[in-house]
Amino acid sequence: MSDQDATSGTRGTEPTTEPAAEPATPSLREAFGEAARRAGVAKVAPGEAPSSGALLAAIGGVRGIVESILPGLVFLVTYAITKELVASVIAPAIVAVGFIVARFSSRTPVTSAIAGAIGIAFSAAVALFTGNVNDAFVPGLITNVVFLVALLVSILVRWPLLGLVAGALTGDITGWRTSAAKRRVALVATLVWVGLFAARIAVQLPLYLAEATEPLAAAKLVMGVPLYAGVLWITWLLMRTAYRRVEPTDSHSSEGQSPEGQSPEGQTASNEE
């Protein structure tokens, strides 16, 4: 065989490199499940007993509470003292930036602080653009309306949103629909959240229309984390009634069975034969 033939044979046997497979895009169901697992309600799995520690974790811990309440409190105090638009909307934004810096300094996750800062900055931008300090509350009102409509639509189509959330947390996103008790609990839990968003709108919208800035800011504080925590606790208690954890089978239940599935008497008889 010539050197050229040998070379040709070697080239013919060279392995071909397959292109790297592109990462699979998560399906809508997977994306919803991941979002549900990141939500505060996921801190207690359906069927588990809620605890104060789980509730504190669901609302972000002490640090999360401070980061949620302090910007609104700063807005209220600043406006009560100065009655100035710019100072009232800029002060909370400075506080939000401070939270981000503090998290970077302590090397803790900054996602929630950045999200909060973006929300505060957007609200401030709306108020500065319109020249009306009360318009800083418009994004929050719109958010409450969106959630309220989504929950009501889920009830109208007979797929209560809290049922889907519970299903995502248990790994069977539609299995709850086969149980009348779980469907009923999903409906009641969804109605509880409807009540939360409806109450916020019912209280805050008239205050906004009346341009009652200070009462509106105070109402937003009270109906924020405290009301959210209460509704979250009620949701967990409701879910526990329908999602009781199944205790592991006691080893004594299989007592008297041999490894082959025979009773000792049957195994003895077999040996005697």
What does this structure look like?
- With 273 residues, this protein is mostly helical.
- It has one domain.
- The chain is built from twelve helices and no strands.
- The protein has helices at residues 3-12, 28-38, 52-58, 61-82, 85-106, 111-130, 138-156, 161-170, 180-209, 213-222, 225-242, 264-272.
- Helix 2 (28-38) packs across helix 8 and helix 9 (180-209) runs antiparallel to helix 11 (225-242).
- The termini are far apart.
Coarse morphology: globular
- Tell me the structural class: mainly alpha
User: Which percent bin holds the helix content?
Assistant: 55-70%
Task: Tell me, rounded to a whole number, the average pLDDT.
Answer: 82
Summarize the structure.
The protein is an all-alpha fold. Helix content is 69%, strand content 0%.
